[in-house]
């Protein structure tokens, strides 16, 4: 089994680098994700980060081609090992200076750098070193032991999928939804559709409605209640300039059963209520305020 694993290492590594390289080099999402990456923070430019990501993708594709065509040559394996070491260094630095940023490893991940990114980079490093030392072609192993090769490749693919946060929506989220339907939410200990308030807040703060209202909001969650299937979340806010500032209550409403594991993004409604008069404030009034600068918190 060890010899079969070593022989198939070029094929597994080529599959991983071919996938991530293709996404980085050709996906339109690369330019969209680049500003969110630690690389953009390091280079102080989203455009330069996009260029580096695409160039890295092209390099990954070149190495993947070498692993497929000339796996007995030590150069592709050594190049993969160097690439993996570079990934680990980048991830470590990115985690230190921009822990909230994504890594851009596949140009479609939208989560901060986690242990899974480090583990995948380690796979590239160890796999590349193994290929460079073994210098063994993969096709004899596939032809001589097709069943064993198929099982091993399927297991390797499952591991790589588990290490890829951007693929969670295809397997992890459906699994979590099934678990919630069968066992209920673990924080509640009962089989119920109720979702913890913290989960609703997290969902809200990742919504477009929150981004639109953020310049007005000036507090953490102040109050919450449920009404006819809606979960109401109340915050305080301020609109207007420094001289004409008006306090408002910012009220969001979203599905009380919605959470990160329940599927598509829910509809979020937002309204503004004048704190003095209790009357609703139209969005047009907020936009027409003399200044839309973010006011400082009272200290």
Task: Considering the chains and any ligands shown, give keywords for the structure.
single chain, alpha+beta, elongated
What profile does the largest beta sheet have?
A: 5 strands, antiparallel
Terminal Cα span = 66 Å
Strands across the major sheet, in which order? Answer: 1-2-3-4-5
Basic shape: elongated
Strand content: 5-15%
The whole-number mean of residue pLDDT values reads 81
Contiguous uncertain segments of 5+ residues: 288-299
Count of DSSP H/I helices: 12
Helix/strand order, N-terminal first:
HHHHHHHHHHHEEEEEH
Q: Which class of secondary structure composition applies to the elements? A: alpha+beta
Helical residues, percent: 40-55%
Characterization of this structure:
The protein is α+β, with helices and mostly antiparallel strands and 299 residues long. 54% of the residues lie in helices and 11% in strands. The chain is built from twelve helices and five strands. The chain has helices at 2-26, 29-33, 38-43, 46-69, 74-97, 115-134, 139-144, 146-162, 168-183, 197-204, 208-213, 283-287, and strands at residues 223-227, 230-239, 246-255, 268-274, 280-281. It has a five-stranded antiparallel beta sheet. Strand 1 (223-227) and strand 2 form a beta hairpin. The longest helix has 25 residues, at 2-26.
């Amino acid at each position: 089994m060890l010899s079969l694993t070593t022989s198939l290492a070029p094929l597994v590594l080529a599959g991983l680098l071919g996938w991530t390289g293709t996404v980085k080099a050709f996906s339109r999402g690369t330019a969209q994700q680049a500003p969110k990456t630690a690389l953009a923070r390091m280079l102080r430019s989203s455009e330069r980060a996009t260029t580096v990501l695409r160039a890295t993708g092209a390099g990954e594709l070149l190495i993947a081609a070498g692993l497929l065509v000339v796996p007995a040559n030590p150069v592709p394996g050594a190049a993969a090992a160097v690439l993996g070491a570079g990934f680990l260094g980048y991830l470590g630095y990115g985690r230190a200076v921009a822990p909230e940023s994504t890594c851009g490893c596949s140009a479609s991940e939208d989560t901060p750098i986690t242990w899974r990114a480090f583990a995948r980079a380690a796979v590239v490093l160890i796999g590349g070193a193994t290929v460079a030392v073994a210098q063994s072609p993969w096709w004899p192993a596939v032809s001589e032991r097709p069943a064993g090769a198929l099982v091993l490749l399927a297991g390797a693919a499952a591991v790589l999928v588990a290490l890829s946060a951007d693929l969670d929506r295809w397997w992890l989220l459906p699994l979590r939804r099934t678990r919630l339907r069968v066992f209920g939410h673990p924080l509640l200990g009962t089989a119920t559709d109720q979702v913890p308030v913290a989960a609703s807040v997290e969902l809200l703060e990742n919504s477009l409605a929150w981004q639109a209202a953020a310049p007005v909001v000036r507090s953490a969650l102040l109050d919450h209640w449920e009404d006819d299937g809606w979960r109401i979340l109340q915050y305080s806010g301020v609109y207007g300039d420094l001289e004409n500032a008006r306090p408002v209550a910012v009220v969001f409403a979203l599905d009380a059963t919605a959470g990160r594991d329940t599927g598509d993004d829910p509809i979020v409604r937002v309204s503004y209520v004048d704190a003095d008069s209790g009357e609703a404030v139209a969005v047009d009034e907020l936009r027409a305020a003399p200044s839309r600068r973010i006011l400082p918190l009272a200290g």
